[in-house]
Amino acid sequence: MSTPVITTPAAEAAVTGRAGVGRRLTSFMPVIALVVLLAALTVADPGFLTLNSLTAAARTSAPLVVLAAGATLVVLCGGIDLSIAALCSLATVFFALWLPDAGGLTTVAVIAATAAIGAVQGVAHVLLRIPSFIVTLGGMSIFSAIALVISDAGPIRVVDRDATHWLTLYVGGVVPMAFVVALLVVVVVSLVLRLTPLESWIRATGYSESAARLAGAPVDVVKIAAFTVSGACAGLAAVMLVSRNFSGSPTMADNLLLPAVAAIVVGGTAITGGHGSLWRSLAGALVVTLLRVGLPIVGVPSAYEQILYGAIIVAAVALTLDRSKVLTIK
Amino acid sequence: MTTNLSRRPEPRVPASAPALEVRGLVKHYPGVKALDGVDLVVRRNEVLGLAGENGAGKSTLLKALVGLVRPDAGEIWVRGEKVRLGSITDAANHGIGMVFQEQSLVPNLTAAENIVLGSEGPGVRHGIYRWNTLRRLAQEQLDKIGSHIDPLARTDSLTFADRQMVEIAKVLRIEERTSHPPVIILDEPTSVLESKEIETLFTQVRRLREFASVVFVSHRLDEVLDVCDRVAVLRGGRSVGEVPAAEAAPAELHRMMIGSTGSDDHYHGAAAERRDEPRRPRLVVRGLSGRSFRDVDLDVHAGEIVGIVGVHGSGREDVCRALFGAEPTTAGDVVLDGEKLDLSGTRAACAAGVGYVPAERKTEGMVGPMSVADNMTLTKQKSRCTGPVVRPGKQAKLVDGWIERLSIRTPDRGTAIQRLSGGNQQKVVLARWLVAGDVRLLLLDHPTRGLDVGARSEVYRLLRELANQGVAMVLLADSLEEAIGMSDRIVVMSDGRATTEVAAPTGDKPTPLDLVKEMV
């Protein structure tokens, strides 16, 4: 019975120690970034830290939070969903087209439709054994094209505003309803994961799919479910966008893909799967939103936004990637 | 038995120095001493055999010789000159090359391209491929070994044996880097060859001896003795001796490989406690066939441990995986406790009370970054849930109970399993199947791989206890000694078929040699 408790001589223990500190730091990174950003923006424009601008920022962030939350599930499983923005755009068109007939049920119908589309992508990924990157890249192109075709390549006005009116309300007069709904999505999905075996299964799938499979975890079902939820979130985000813009448009959400991926990686969710959470993506989405509303304040033209997103994604992954897990960097 | 290991030949005359010499090589891995002071001499123009059981340190030694593993201590000398080998290129520059067990050719390139890949030399000028020169270079290499393979054939269109010839031709490119005769290492080159192809390979090895030194590694002792001039034996990371091949018998070699320490006593001792009452058959396998196995029949009774032994490529690992639904089958019936077992997937197997401990613990057995508790309850989620809801308190109580029962050494149940030692990791992996108390059949693929002696005996004791409680087990042991010690019955597999069955009751155990005879 001479089994040592911890694997190692001192050298490796030191490494583990450093990784421990690093991990703790990265887990607070999104919150630290959020506070630093708020402080910086307040310094740049002392008028920024007011109830009005914070309320506006929260309202703007809601669709992004929802999109990022859904896609986080796919990333946790070790995949990626590049189709969320295109699917969301398509869903705004669905909403505008279906509203006259479906009325109050339109929201439910749109979310059900996008969930089904997400499930189809998940099934294609699992059953045909195609990398999720490719499936959703193809999906992105297909959904964009369908949106263009069925909308005649232009925005469709939404005249009946009753169906989305509730999303434009304010809880307690200050907190935008859309943001509350986004928070609810994060809370509910996180709770479901935490309270059921799902979290265990998702993490195992993301960290090591073969180990998860050999432990009898329902890997395929979990992955399809993740894509389904990601699709449903794209539908919900679309409803939020329509409630603000009073129209559906085939390109309405297209500029949200990069911010959503940025939100996930800035939050510190590992792009290789397993490690991360929806809470992190919430913080990441708030950071990204603050950058977005803050750039004009510090005098950066918004045309530079995309450069920033690109740089953020690369930098955040560079900081958080566990290279020991990735044998060959492709 | 000749040994010139103690010789300290400094200063030496380079002309008489051995082609390659290893002195006191040490390599530790967490929990394991892979090399524990290995000495080895490879003379010029000789074929040296390297024998040893799994875990004896052969592959680590070979990797150190080609710069893939950095030893913790010890020296490597090449032709009387002490060298440090930091990479495969370093080794090649010193004239050491290896033909890998897993072939290292790029399948969609031609044989010629593969041969010169990475050592194009005059075949590339100003960054541009000069195809004619490349082909000529490749042809020269093939001529060297007298092979008639078409250099323009795509590699994946060649037979396995031909691809191996291409590998040898490729390795011989290191002659361009040094003026000295090279040292060529062949790691298990015969494991997937037909007997006729093996003859061709041996002719090739003898031809290589004319201008090179060869290190030949094989599990099959008769082959080693057939083709080698001298055989060095490793055991437990140490050199235990060497014999001239002409004088040795497989039996003698085998004795050296497994040692005569009687270290398998503890299996027998534990086995003696077994209840020996009549048992009912639990697992009945009839005519099971798959990609790498055919028509396998197997019976395992409740409380019985059946070992399957066989050389590399015998298909025993795949049979094990097939019974767990992790490897497709084409035919056959499997019945567990009178009910047909669903082999369509791992979930069905788990639900039926079948457990599997994979050989690759770190990548397949456990989810490294997840906690001990979550790893332990990963399969039997119901054991920590009420309805669909996880109850952390229930999980804590269950996991802590098993941590205590199996004396798993861990700071606490929340520690990431990858921080534990190998033996404790393996106990968590085993506990995964036990927490629900519904396991009927355990399939154990090298359950003690990479564990040190203490951890091994703990695993043995645990397995024995489980057998006494009526769990049926199929064991693919790490060594013959382990298979004999642990098993009640041993099935020998060869070329995908179960060929023989040997009874191995306590007090009347077969010897490793009895089994080796059946295996080859």
TrEMBL record, chain A:
Keywords from the UniProt entry: Cell inner membrane, Cell membrane, Membrane, Transmembrane, Transmembrane helix, Transport
* Membrane-crossing residue ranges in chain numbering: 28-52, 64-97, 103-123, 130-150, 170-193, 221-244, 256-274, 306-322
Membrane topology per the entry is: Multi-pass membrane protein
Mind telling me what this protein is named? ABC transporter permease
Which CDD domains is this protein grouped with?
TM_PBP1_transp_AraH_like
**Keyword field contains Transmembrane helix:** yes
Protein source organism: Myceligenerans salitolerans
Q: Which domain of life is it from?
A: Bacteria
- Localization in the cell: Cell membrane
UniProtKB/TrEMBL annotation, chain B:
* GO MF term set: ATP binding
* Annotated protein name in UniProt: Sugar ABC transporter ATP-binding protein
Q: Where is the ABC transporter domain?
A: 20-261, 278-520
Annotated keywords: ATP-binding, Nucleotide-binding, Repeat, Transport
> Quick check: keyword Kinase in the entry?
no
InterPro entries recorded for this chain?
AAA+_ATPase (IPR003593), ABC_carbohydrate_import_ATPase (IPR050107), ABC_transporter-like_ATP-bd (IPR003439), ABC_transporter-like_CS (IPR017871), P-loop_NTPase (IPR027417)
| Cross-referenced PANTHER family | CARBOHYDRATE TRANSPORT ATP-BINDING PROTEIN MG119-RELATED, GALACTOFURANOSE TRANSPORTER ATP-BINDING PROTEIN YTFR
- Gene3D superfamilies per record: P-loop containing nucleotide triphosphate hydrolases (3.40.50.300)
